[in-house]
Amino acid sequence: MDMNRSALFLLLLWFSLDSAIAQDFIIKNFDVSIQIDRSGVINTHEKITVDFSAQKRGIIRNIPYQYTYQKKSYKANITSIAVKDQPSKITDQSGQKSIRIGDPDRYITGRQVYDITYKVKGPFITADTYDEFYWNITGNEWTAPIEKVNFDITLPDDIALDYADLKLYAGKTGSRADSGFIQQEGRHITGQNINILQPGEGLTIALKLPSGYIDPVNTVHLSESRTQEVMRKLKTQWPLAILPAILISLMVGWWNKMKTRFNPEPITEPQPYPPLDMNPAEVGAFFDHIVNDRDVISLLPYWAAQGFIKMEYDQHSEDTYLIKLQNLDEKHAAYEYTLFNKIFEGRPSVSLSSLRNNFHQTHAAVKSMIKQEIIDKELYDPEYRHWFKSWRSWIGITAFMVLAILCMALGYWLAGIFFIIGFIIGIILITTSQVLSQRGQLMHQKLKAFYAFLKGDQNQSLESVIKDDPNYFDKVYPYAVALKLDKSFITKVRPYIPQAPIWYGYYGMGMGQHHQTMNDFGTHFEPKEISSAFTSYPQPTVGSGGGSFGGGGGGFSGGGFGGGGGSSW
Question: pTM higher than 0.90 for the full model?
């Protein structure tokens, strides 16, 4: 019998030594100091004494921050990680903080001491009648044995706990073995292990504290669902959400004040003519605050009506020709000269088909020039543009997003949500909203009245206007193109103007010898086709767009928060 016992002892000793030799190190002492704060934060200080039997660089300490408890996942916030007098690298790996300690270029042997400090927010459990500090002191994932564990936990208040409220579990994960020494002296709860902890074993403590002892915001509630937990935490975070709510209110209020500070009387009577000091490209761009392809195309009938060009349709090739009659005069905008000169380039005429795949860069440049022309006319409030259409606004909304990320990372969800809302509102205000100057608002009122006349059922008024002004179609049609009302406008004027405009005819015929009806003109003059010729690329690509202005069940070893483990490297 004595021989069998001796053999068993030698076998166990061999396995223990074999495990230690395989890892080439032993943890001689694992000393832990923990200070508990009633806010739900603990300050942890670990001093790990390691004896290396082979050359190593140091150790890796893994501390989990994601946990599963009673089939629910929780996340603690680990911050302020520091390693004293040793080089270290901290990374996030699979739900844990991995602290690699040691110099990659230096190997060590013998006894080494590693001093680690960190803070953890939220490693507490709240039941109906008590709070609990449930903490895995060493972790159960060390690949080497731990000879001695000493811990000292400091409570925030000098309260007396029953001995039954102090639990210590040792062994592999799931073990309920009460294998250790624990006691309370005033605010301090101290203890240590009795047996050596083998690889895969650890030491876990559970302290049963009075109900409400820890701020419930930073605890895991056993009796509530995940939704209830989120709602409870959100309710307690209202004070922190006041700041972003105030900032959002100030931003929206300021924007609304600037938007409404000029409020001219609305023009209720539809107007048959556009404003005199804006050509159709500028009217189209200013009306919807976007420079569309149609705005550029509208300049062709605009020039034709003034006698600078004419257009002819070739029935055989189904192509349209632009024919120059004379150069633009000095009254036209710079972008008009750019477009006009690039179309003809010294040629007397040009077909639309010849412009395909060759004109997109000019078209894009002209759109940008139209946008700048509108801005230069000061139709938009310069003060609004100074704040909401410049780098200043982007700094503001970037700050909203940075603060949102920071609040979310620190667990202040409600404040983070409000900052995200502020970020979204800021993006909307910057990219879509426009605030007009006093002159701009008056101009926009006139355009609305003009648009209402073209779009509405004004047959009697239209007939009267055409009777009084035989050139009405030539004057207004370019604006109808820019406002995307060209087809409906042709339909409305057809009963009163049966012939196509004099500047549009069949290819090869003289001026006025076109023999085209207004119906033919509406069929053959197609702004979409012209836009396609102006914007097509040599290779397929994205089409051009507009240029905007704009614990109840008990504890066990390996359970609770904390834990993790480590290895050498």
Answer: no
